[in-house]
Amino acid sequence: MGGETAAPATGPAPKGLDLYARYAFAGAVCCSVTHGALTPVDVVKTRIQLYPEQYSQGMIKAFGQVIKSEGAFALLTGVGPTFVGYFLQGALKFGGYEFWKKTFIQTIGIEAAQENRTAIYLASSGLCEFVADIALCPLEATRIRLVSQPTFANGLIGGFMRLLREEGVLRGFYSGFGPILFKQIPYTMAKFVVYERTAETFYGMISTPKDKLSNLTVTGINLGSGLIAGFAAAIISQPADTLLSKINKQKGVEGSITSRLIGLARELGPRGLFLGLGARLVMVGTLTAGQFAIYGDIKRMLGATGGVEIAKKQ
């Protein structure tokens, strides 16, 4: 990945399953920590999407409304499923991204990969996200139900089991699988490709070779590239994020997921689909910057620097 630098030589470099396990662990930590820390923003963003008539005065006012009516602790609603869900999703996303990227590079060769690197970034991120969402969807459904109906259950296990008992696996956990794919796959594709190309541009502006840069400089580039990538990904995936919140708000209703999504989109209109965008830009920009910074630092500490570089030298 763009921010990778060589680790100190303290032993044999990890390979194969050992290497990808380290990628997965770094991804799990960076996603769970950042998403968990931003749970209050996610709670407010979801409330704005679900109850626009009540939370109509912007993000800051919405924070105050939630605290006034339900107490400060309400801002941590859903932190359990958020942490667990994104721990699993982060492992599969980042570990899978590194796996698919290397697989494509080995298949077509390094020179062709450099010429077609944007396509490789897009394909790798789309494939890894599809797999990651299978693990994330049940926990995301639980989180949204807890946020939209605070009395539904008293936490992750209670909410998860009640949803399973009352609505079953498909309707309870995967009624939002279509919109979560519609949201997460474009989001992740934009996130990785914008990060990779932005980091490539930043490194190209510096005369010092990347492997000679200080750790602080590399972390700064990861942060800046991640912030830009987060803004792009948030805007692209906002309509699907709104639909996901709406479709998971209440018990499943009759009709296919596709027909329900079309009906909701018509009902909301273009403006309604972008409800909560301000809060989401803050949330996604911050967490994406944090993710790439943490991911790069943990990879470096674990010696997981065996990825193949395909960014063109400036």
Textual characterization of the structure:
The model has no long low-confidence stretch (mean pLDDT 87). The chain is globular. The longest helix is centred in the C-terminal third of the chain and has 33 residues, at 215-247. The protein contains eleven helices and no strands. Helix 6 (117-148) packs across helix 7. The chain has 314 residues and is mainly alpha-helical. The chain has helices spanning 16-37, 39-50, 59-70, 79-108, 110-115, 117-148, 156-173, 177-204, 215-247, 257-273, 277-302. The chain has a single domain (16-302), classed as Mitochondrial carrier domain (Mitochondrial carrier fold).
- The counted number of beta strands is 0
**Using only CA atoms, what is the Rg?**
20 Å
* Gap from first CA to last CA: 16 Å
Please indicate the count of domains. Answer: 1
Helical content stands at: over 70%
Q: Give the overall pLDDT as a whole number.
A: 87
- Estimated share of beta-strand residues: under 5%
- Biggest sheet, in brief? none
Task: Supply the CATH superfamily name.
Answer: Mitochondrial carrier domain
Give the ordered list of helices and strands: HHHHHHHHHHH
Silhouette: globular
CATH topology: Mitochondrial carrier fold
Task: Report the top-level CATH class.
Answer: Mainly Alpha
Short description:
With 314 residues, the protein is mainly alpha-helical. Helix content is 75%, strand content 0%.
Give the helices and strands, then pairings:
Blueprint: H1 16-37, H2 39-50, H3 59-70, H4 79-108, H5 110-115, H6 117-148, H7 156-173, H8 177-204, H9 215-247, H10 257-273, H11 277-302
Helix pairs in contact: 1-4, 1-11, 2-3, 2-11, 4-6, 6-7, 6-8, 8-9, 9-10, 9-11
